[in-house]
């Protein structure tokens, strides 16, 4: 067990180092990215340029610059932005993280519950109009761009029908911390959750349905029916339980990707200052410290999520458990 | 037949599945047989002859959309054809249990063996978890599983093929069914384990009084195990009768050809083992006459008009025109296998 954790930690370290070196290298290889000119401002004199270059350490060899940046990011945590002078990036990321985490977790709960219900129902009633209707809905969900859904949701709830009973409760765009007001937090996020979940509901319910139907042809499903179990029990305890293995691996990747900044569009549309939005800002400003910080944060999440998925796998599938022992 | 009233009596069982928009494709045609109390009946035939589908039809487990089952299946006097799935459920697993070919894939991989046997027990009788588990462990022990307590806690992939099949049989027997349908229970196992499993099946009759419907493609298995034998060819009955009579004097050319293709244990070994030329017809291309006629050495015009009637020939029932023409097959000179 300890060995596994250590190995996992080693892998994490390796992945983080690789990614950070890559981001660092790409940044300095990008033409026009020289931070000196940006920091010094337009038409700066060569003296100012030289001064800035020296102050920020841009005149030192790249490996040294890299090491300094990593030290400032992880050890002293006082890495400052190149764009907004004096702004520390680590607190920025830590301020944005709860927003994204709230958004993605809520959406994930919705999409997991709804897609399992939809997929199972569709598989159980395969070929019926319920099945066709649900899968059509899923397809529509996949086809609608998330920013469009978000805009429409805003349009309806914020302006058009805001005064009707249906949407009167909707607060102005923005984030309310859970610690401040749980109910306010919920109200501020629920539309964003649904918006973000729609795509995944479509995707997951279709995948689950296909998986359940594939599983229903398996020998063990026939055995379960031959045992005299009810169709519901056969479908849920034997079919769904086995299909969950695929579902979980899919979920882990999507969840990590979203927490790491993939929910950018939803964050922008709903005015949430999350990690996605922060990354976007950093990229448009070519602000290396902020880029580095957000990328590192997102990489950490992907690695953690992968580890979690592996653990859930071990719980779900005894065959994997033995493969490890 | 040992009992007076057969446990299972199948009359004119036919199964057709839809093909295209309107046509129905016959899979099983007019199959009749019966299984007596404590009897072991073997159903033999090539792949695609309809053996497994016969079993699944009896169990009401045909789930091909639009499939049509006609004829009659009477189980302890109760008609099963046309029975609703809801009414079928208490029978399945409790009265009629089934063992499948590949014990690797027949257990749900994510639950322990014990859990799955408990599940069947608890589906049919109101017992506590602990009672169910006690019965499971006892059954596994009875089936010759060493250390049954531990085996019950293991997952299917952790057991060997032979142990898995024993567990499968234990599960099938968990509710004391009066009929056990074994669909090629030994095909996926190696020969020594196969012999053990067959021995186990034979002992069931003694210990549990179960009747067994044993589906196989292996004539050797039939000879070792079954009281009577039913030979299926392309969804049609070819021959049925007591095993020793059928082996000693097959009435149908197909049975005879099957027996000829088994290498003899004694005497001169043929340099080339006789085989049946050609392949069985697919359900879509069955001839209107005897389905075996295209491959039969006795093929003649009388075979081509309609399905040959089932006639009594010695101790067997044979679906062939030869006995009617007074041209019965000769007694086999070689010993029964």
From TrEMBL, chain A:
Q: Which Gene Ontology terms of cellular component type are present?
A: plasma membrane
Q: Does the UniProt entry include the keyword Transport? A: yes
From the Swiss-Prot or TrEMBL record, state where the protein is found: Cell membrane
Pfam families under this entry?
BPD_transp_1, BPD_transp_1_N
Q: Which UniProt keywords apply?
A: Cell membrane, Membrane, Transmembrane, Transmembrane helix, Transport
InterPro entries per UniProt: BPD_transp_1_N (IPR045621), MetI-like (IPR000515), MetI-like_sf (IPR035906)
Biological process, per Gene Ontology:
transmembrane transport
Record field: transmembrane:
12-30, 99-122, 134-153, 183-204, 244-270, 290-316
Q: How does it sit in the membrane?
A: Multi-pass membrane protein
4Fe-4S listed as a keyword: no
User: Where is it predominantly found?
Assistant: membrane
Residues forming the ABC transmembrane type-1 domain are 97-313
- UniProt similarity note: Belongs to the binding-protein-dependent transport system permease family.
Protein name (record): ABC transporter permease
Automatic annotation (TrEMBL), chain B:
Q: What is its main location?
A: membrane
Q: How does it sit in the membrane?
A: Peripheral membrane protein
Listed under GO biological process in this entry are: peptide transport; transmembrane transport
Q: Which UniProt keywords apply?
A: ATP-binding, Cell membrane, Membrane, Nucleotide-binding, Transport
One annotated GO molecular function: ATP binding
The record ties this protein, via SUPFAM superfamilies, to: P-loop containing nucleoside triphosphate hydrolases
Which PROSITE patterns does UniProt cross-reference here? ABC_TRANSPORTER_2
As for subcellular location, the record says: Cell inner membrane
- Domain of life, per lineage: Bacteria
Q: Give the matching InterPro entries.
A: AAA+_ATPase, ABC_Ni/Peptide_Import, ABC_transporter-like_ATP-bd, Oligopep_ABC_C, P-loop_NTPase
An annotated GO cellular component of this protein is:
plasma membrane
Please list the residue ranges annotated as the ABC transporter domain: 8-259
Write the protein's name.
ABC transporter ATP-binding protein
| The species this protein was found in | Ameyamaea chiangmaiensis
């Amino acid at each position: 067990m300890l060995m596994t954790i250590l190995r996992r930690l080693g892998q994490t370290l390796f992945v983080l180092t690789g990614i950070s070196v890559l981001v660092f290298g790409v940044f300095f290889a990008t033409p026009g990215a020289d931070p000196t000119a940006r920091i010094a401002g337009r038409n700066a004199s060569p003296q100012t340029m030289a001064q800035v270059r020296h102050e920020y350490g841009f005149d030192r060899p790249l490996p040294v610059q890299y090491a300094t940046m990593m030290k400032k990011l992880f050890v002293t945590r006082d890495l400052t932005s190149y764009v907004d002078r004096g702004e520390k990036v680590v607190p920025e990321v830590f301020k944005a993280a709860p927003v994204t985490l709230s958004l993605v977790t809520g959406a994930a709960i919705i999409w997991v519950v709804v897609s399992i219900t939809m997929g199972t129902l569709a598989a159980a009633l395969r070929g019926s109009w319920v099945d066709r209707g649900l899968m059509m809905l899923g397809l529509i969900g996949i086809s609608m761009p998330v920013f469009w859904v978000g805009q429409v949701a805003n349009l309806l709830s914020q302006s058009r029908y805001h005064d009707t009973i249906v949407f009167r409760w909707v607060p102005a765009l923005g984030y309310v911390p859970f610690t401040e007001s749980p109910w306010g937090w919920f109200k501020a996020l629920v539309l964003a959750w649904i918006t973000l979940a729609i795509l995944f509901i479509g995707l997951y319910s279709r995948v689950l349905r296909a998986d359940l139907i594939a599983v229903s042809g398996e020998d063990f499903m026939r055995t379960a029916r031959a045992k005299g179990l009810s169709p519901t029990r056969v479908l849920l305890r034997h079919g769904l339980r086995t299909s969950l293995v695929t579902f979980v691996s899919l979920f882990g990747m999507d969840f990590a990707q979203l927490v790491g900044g993939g929910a950018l569009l939803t964050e922008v549309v709903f005015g949430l200052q999350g990690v996605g939005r922060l990354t976007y800002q950093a990229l448009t400003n070519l602000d290396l410290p902020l880029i580095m910080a957000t990328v590192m944060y997102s990489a950490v999440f992907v690695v953690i999520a992968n580890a979690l998925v592996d653990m859930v796998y071990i719980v779900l599938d005894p065959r994997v458990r033995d493969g490890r022992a | 037949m040992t009992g007076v009233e057969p446990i299972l009596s199948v009359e004119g069982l036919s199964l057709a599945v839809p093909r295209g928009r309107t046509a129905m494709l016959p899979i099983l045609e007019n199959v009749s047989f019966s299984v007596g109390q404590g009897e072991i009946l073997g159903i033999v035939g090539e792949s695609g002859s309809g053996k497994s589908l016969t079993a699944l039809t009896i169990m009401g487990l045909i789930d091909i959309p639009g499939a049509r089952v006609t004829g009659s299946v009477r189980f302890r006097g109760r008609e099963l054809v046309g029975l609703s799935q809801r009414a079928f459920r208490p029978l399945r697993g409790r009265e009629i249990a089934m063992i499948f070919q590949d014990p690797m894939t027949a257990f749900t991989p994510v639950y322990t063996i014990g859990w799955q046997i408990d599940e069947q027990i608890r589906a049919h009788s109101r017992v506590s978890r602990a009672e169910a588990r006690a019965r499971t462990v006892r059954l596994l022990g009875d089936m010759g599983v060493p250390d049954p307590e531990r085996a019950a806690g293991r997952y299917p992939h952790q057991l060997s093929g032979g142990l898995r099949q024993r567990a499968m049989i234990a599960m099938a027997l968990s509710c004391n069914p009066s009929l056990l349908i074994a669909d090629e229970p030994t095909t996926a196992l190696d020969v020594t384990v196969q012999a053990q499993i067959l021995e186990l099946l034979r002992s069931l009759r003694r210990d549990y009084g179960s009747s067994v419907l044993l589906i196989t493609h292996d004539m050797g298995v039939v000879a070792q195990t079954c009281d009577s034998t039913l030979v299926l060819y392309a969804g049609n009955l070819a021959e049925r009768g007591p095993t020793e009579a059928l082996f000693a004097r097959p009435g149908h050319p197909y049975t005879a050809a099957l027996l000829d293709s088994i290498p003899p244990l004694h005497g001169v070994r043929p340099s080339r083992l006789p085989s049946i030329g050609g392949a069985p017809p697919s359900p879509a291309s069955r001839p209107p006459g005897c389905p075996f006629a295209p491959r039969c050495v006795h093929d003649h015009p009388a075979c081509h008009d309609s399905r040959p009637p089932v006639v009594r020939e010695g101790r067997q029932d044979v679906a062939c025109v030869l006995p009617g023409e007074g041209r019965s097959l000769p007694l086999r000179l070689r010993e029964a296998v």
